[in-house]
Structures
1.
Amino acid sequence: MNPATPKTEPSLMKTNCSLRGNMAIVKKRPASRNTRPLWSGLAWLAAVAGLLLLLPLAVQAQYDYTNINGSITITGYSGVGGVVVIPSTITGLPVTSIGDFAFRYNTNLTSVTIPNSVTYMGQFAFGECSMLTTAIIGNGVTSIGYAVFENCDSLTSVTIPASVTSIGDGAFLDSISLTSVTIPSSVTNIGNFAFENSALTSITIPDGVISIGDVAFYNTRLIGSVTIPDSVTSIGEAPFESGAQLTAITVDSGNLFYSNVSGVLFNKNQTTLIEFPGGMVEWGGSYTIPSGVTSIGDDAFGFCNLTNITIPDSVTSIGTAGFLACEILPSVMIPNSVTNIGAGAFAGCDTLTAITVDTGNPAYISVAGVLFNQSQTTLIAYPPSKVGNTYEIPSTVTSIAQQAFSGCESLTSILIPNGVTNIGFEAFAGCTSLTGADFQGNAPSIDTTAYDRDSFESGDPFSGDTNATAYYLPGATGFGTTFGGLPTALWTGQSIVIVNLTADPSQGGTVIGGGTFAVGSSQPISASANSGWMFTDWSDGGAQTHDITVPAGGATYTATFTQQQPQTAVIAVQANPGNGGTVSGGGTYAVGSSQQISAYANSGWTFTGWSDGG
């Protein structure tokens, strides 16, 4: 055979076989007419093998990685996204770690499978992958670290394997579509804010969990009740603070550290109230703290829907943010036993009009509904709905506490005396109507750090007060072009005083124009009557809207309102003739109101019609 002539493959007998009884029937099928050279088949096999070799290389090329002692840590990803299956080996070495920030901000990733070879996932590894819907975690992972799936907006499903013993701080923070998750019995620790702001509607905490961190399930959508097993020995601040649908927190009777009373979470001997479920009572309900309680925990009543809370005289301490954002609580009475009140205890209580303190309390005092320490050197809390839109801080005050005026949306001006040397974290944050903060002395020092929950975007004392200006006197030190988040301006040498406006009665209408102004300046004030009321007069005799000349020493102007009496008319109904039937519906009614009149014919008579044609 000529060696240059390709050798053909031998013909193959291709058969179809069937069995009939004990005989095999063989049907001959002709071999293919297209015979191929042997070298062509070998080349095809080589090409396929080459592609198979290249595929892992192509996959591997999508990853940035480091080799640490023969183990691969993935540090970045540059693939097209979609459904991603992370390889278990790269360059023949095992992939054991997903590094910090490795996939963060990848908006094309929709699904990820993490191989069993991976034992560690770094912080923010998949953080802010906004299109990620599914995550399958391999059974080599023992810990879901800090903020691994933070802010994964589309994440609805995650498989946590039985190998995981710890769910780290912020692991699923702000994953707002995550509606359910199964925590395996292997887990012993649930970290701080692990599921905060997720969409969980229920959660089962397995027996074996030892620790539940601060606000672990804060602002989820938990419905009904949640049960704490007997294995839990540590519970952080308000772990289940989830709004008005959580009705009870129950504790296994065998737990040695915690208990519950009627769905409220306490320590075992019930001296510390840890958390009051937001939906335990109906909207606008009441609650009396048991008499043996000595401490109200941090954020214990956060976002509750109570209108009345009774604090017994056994309580000595109210924790940080103890009544945070109790939005419909109108007042609170602090007994003489309380000697410690944490920062921001009443921040965000939008309808709070007064904080009252028992006159026998040795540590605190209330002045016109405002909470101070006993010596009145620290202003602790100003009720957001206190009557009046201006306030002059007493001259005894040297310190304004953290979030003392936070959320006082009706406050338009504040006068800060020259004795104030310190302003706390976000002391005036969210005072959205504030136009002027008037400083009579040098710039106080500012605290910009504090507990980091439920605060505004920064720690500036005037954070969010976009309409306000900080005014300071000539010669004052410490003021730049801005102070505490506000632009600054120099007083012009004129005396600055407060003009207060009030409505009498308060429900009669609203008044506009109060604030801090220069003596002798002209300022407009106006009054607007509420429905059913009418404006009567101003205390200075001015028109409903008029200008005032600001007097030395300031002044209070009161708008008087009178309730309108509705105009009435008598409706008389009669039958004609009188023995023909009976009529009803007559009486005295408000003009313009709709009323019904009726006629009923007596036996032998027929109703003909009303005189108005009705």
2.
Amino acid sequence: MSNASGRYAFEGFRVDAHARQLLDAAGQPLPLTAKAFDVLMHLIEHRDRVVGKDELMAHVWSGRVVEENNLNQAVSALRRAFGTGAGDHRYIVTVPGHGYRFVAQVDGGVDDVPPSQTPALTAADARTASHRRGWIVAAVAAAALLLPAFLFWPRPAHSPPTAANTATLAVLPFRALPSAASDELLELGMAETLIARLSQAGALQVRSLDASRRLRSQDPMDAGRQLRVAYVVTGSTQRQGGRMRVTVRLLHVPDGRTLWAGTFDEQRDRVFALQDAIAEAVAGALTVKVVRTAQRHSPCDGDNVEAYRAYLSGRYVLSRPTVERLSEAEAALGRAIELDPTCARAHAVRAQLRLQQLSLTEHDPGEQYRLAWADVNRALELDPRLADAYVARGLIQVGYYWDATQAEASLARALELDAGSASVHAAYADVLATAGRDERAALHLWRAQVLGPLSPWGTLIAAAWLYRIDPVAAQALLARTLEAEPGYWFALWQRAAWARNQGHLAEAIADLEQAARNSGRNSRVLSSLARTYMAARQPERARALLQEMEQRQRQGYVHPSALAITYYELGDDAHALDQLERAYTQRDLRIANLGDDPYWQRLHANPRFQALARRAVLKSDRPAARN
């Protein structure tokens, strides 16, 4: 992956292969030994893969017998030059047992423009040579442990074009001044709205609110360094009677300078009207242009502060959902729609929320999908350019209609409308993974992590991929998830499956029993527990779980696929087939492509199973086999 010019740029650094120099953001050469520079060049030129240690030593120390410590010292020298430590994988990732991979997104063939000729960054005379694109590096900075899940995937052959002067920027949640009472929804809402405005500038890579929200209590410079951005926007709010004063600063992370600052006053119920003025002022300081698209606005976009608050209350649950929070969020979004029936965003988010309820609770999927579909249609009727609505539509198309082709089209449209959204990329990854296209799914999951930290669910997807390559690393990743979200039952459920596969049945049972408690005895967890009881030769405990699920199914909804698994484990094939057919009728996605699932091997010759397998197929215009 070399280029004729021999010049590369990444995250504010530039490399000149001909001059054999590594330059910082100000264009100053950084001290490197000849061997360290050779290691850097080989890693950059082979950044599409993990480079083995033997290969590096043979290339850099050709014809000489050297110890691995020589290579370790060269890599350490590079990390010192980048300002990172041994445990910081922002640029070079160590892959235990394999070698190293260069993970920063590289712009090859950049022009050798001196810093004095770069565009102005302030309305006065501030200038910079920072040619950052921080797309992959921010992923590592946000959650370095996630990156190994993707190291073995090849880089995309058709990456989006990059501009050498693309700047990376984060907007931190605004803060109330110490003398004022904190208003978290107002502070988050102002940041979210400003992010949406600034994202319309093509020359800016703006981090998602989910990425910066977790750093709201940190010093802005520290937050900027962790997010690997060149610029940070920070603001404060102060109430003064019926008015609100908003003070905003644009900070340059590499040197800590304040490039621009401004103060705005507005009626408290009109504070979101300031966002256009603030966005244009920040963009002007960066000498980029915010293009105002012909987007539709309704009172819940800020004019009606109560409606906007209700929308935000529901919106922020999506990244960290629980059964209790989902109920509160549904009520809040209903309130937003009551206050503003034209609130397209509330309809779209409520559709996504109802889909999350299918994962966390035991709702009739037919009813939930119908309610979500109605919200999607209403949202698109109100705003045909709403990316969140296309995300929900795509998830319904794959989840209820089992149509991966239509789902991909909806997600592609969402990406056209909001390519900088972490949640859109994560949803696209979910659809692609369901269709069996893991490589493309990994690409979009990687991009989602660049734009914002993965949700616990996204982390589980990454861990599942990593487990195929490195079970120990995958288990460490899952452990980190449980540290961040103690008792998260999806993670316990996954860890138990791995433990069962490895024969650690007591550990699997302990995790599943805890997951059953934490999930409200979700039937999918109970079926996994029954399966593990059978492996541990405790059939009486499996039968007790079956009786519990049978009783619940007589009174309400229970996942038919969970009952099918339990019957199957107990050797009752006839009842297992009854539940599989019921699962098909109720559109249980877990039995899509049923005939390809080796778990049901005992039934493969059964005529009823064969007939069902011919119907239970995910629609796709591409083969479901993994790329």
3.
Amino acid sequence: MRDWLSHRVVSSPDDTALIRAEDGEKWTYAELDRLVSETAGRLAAHGIGPGDHLGVLMPAYVGAVGLAHAAMRLGATYVPLGERLTPRELSDRIDRADLTVLVCGESTESDAVAATDDVPVLSVDEPTTGSVRGVHDADPIPIDPPEWTFEDRLCLLFTSGSTGGPKPVELTAGNVYASAVASAFRLGVDPDDRWLVSISLHHMGGLAPIYRSTLYGTTVVLREEFDPGRTADDIDAYDVTGVSLVPTMLKRTLDRRGTLADSLRVVLLGGASAPNSLIERCRNYSIPVYPTYGMTEAASQIATATPTQTFDRPGTVGRPLFGTDLTIVSESGEPVDPGDAGEIVVDGPTITPGYYGMPETTDAAFGEYGLHTGDIGRIDDEGNLYVLNRLDDQIVSGGENVDPGEVFEALSDHPAVADAAVVGLEDDVWGERVAALLVADADAISADASSTAEFVDGPDVGGESDSDADISGDDDQSDTGDGSDTDGSETSGTDAETEHADSERLPEPAVDEAELFSFLREQLAGFKLPRTIAFTDDLPRTVSGTIDRSAVRSTLRERGYEPKPVDRGFSSAGFEPADPEPVTERDADADDPVEEERSDSDDEGTEPPVSDDASDSSVSDDASDSPAGDPETGRHDR
């Protein structure tokens, strides 16, 4: 078969393919096809062809949609990159993906140039840097669209692993096609469907609707970035029938507008576990919520619950989608009995063939029953899946996946930090926030004993200690977006006894927090910066010598504080306050965007990406498939 848009334009050329939410401009499939043909011809004139890797670094513009289709028309692999990443982070992904060319826009050109010096950079806008060429500098040339098979690599999307570092996930045309079919069987498809996308296209939750709508012949309503009030307004103004959101996004949208228009028939909710209070709110306001569990490696959804299942069985993400085999296995890799917990393993036509350029990682991820997700879950007697926790200790904050190892490495690179432990703490707004317990370098300890800063040590762990309560109590359940913060190093009872130093007040460390966070911002995206820190003389450890993460969390909950310099990092990451903000009188009387008054504390917030790398849940792909994880995958990327 040819690229999917070339088939769709033959079937329904006059149907609406795309609506830009900001101004309501529309493109029919025939108009979108002409845009894509021109773009593909210009890229071909720049030397891009079958088998090449087309990197794209730009927000969710109409042009980014065109580039996704243009890549397929050329027979190239589409590689979207997160526009909020630092040049260092982008450089690593560019190398891992073997990009042939990187396409940017005016807003991302400087980062694109800083991220690579050996990959050609093209801009869809007028270039401002001498080394960058404009896509429109070359006249389009005729191309002979190649034939695609289900085995051909359609796209590469990045997800962070528990072992650290970004992993490029290969998704074939067959993976994405099978996912679209299975999702349609579960959610249904109507010819008049309109799916709102306000998630970056480097998330499966943002990209999946672009491909699926072309296969279905339905409409995408595209907004450049998520805004809670405008999301609700877009649903109403454009008669949106489906949207992918993570729980934080849905809560903020409801907080801003109270409820959602009755044109909606699907709210695909993924990227993190949905609080029971949010599900109950959806029931009370007749919001058709479909909690989902997925991952980038599954091209989005793995299991999705219907509203009836959701309201009758709190906590479930439903049954596996058509064609997906789901097995719960023990530590030995053998299937467990129904109701017993174990690792979730998935197989089927939607599952990735592996991680690009990482054969050993691919081999380690697959077993007898399929892909090992790293998530713990159980299946009840009726076949409904419940996701309990994660095997690794990855942090999912506002739907974005944060690898603690990456944050640890950045902290360790600072000369004033001798050691650190990075964990996730429960957060009412973002599900989890990044937290770090730090040991200052001995040479950096100030001699000023009059300092008012406090060093803290980990609590006693064992017996009736805080750590034991933390492992089994309610606090532990809320540490992760999916119900657990455990990892292989955490144990209970006497096995959790830790070595620790006597607590005492120590001199203030000679660590300039403003300088530290300025340093970190050069290494990490804003959403990865620690929002809670504390200092200690020694990190709490188990008797085996590993970091006792439960004790670390207890210490951070008791003594941790929010460093003021981090606020600017979050603002620069594009986050918005999560609490509903007072609106002006004008908002009540007009449809225009409102001016909002913010408190000082609100200014600290940020708007969760709708979602970079999601365990993906399935809003799939179509949802933080998700800013807080990927709604479409319902799981935060590993």
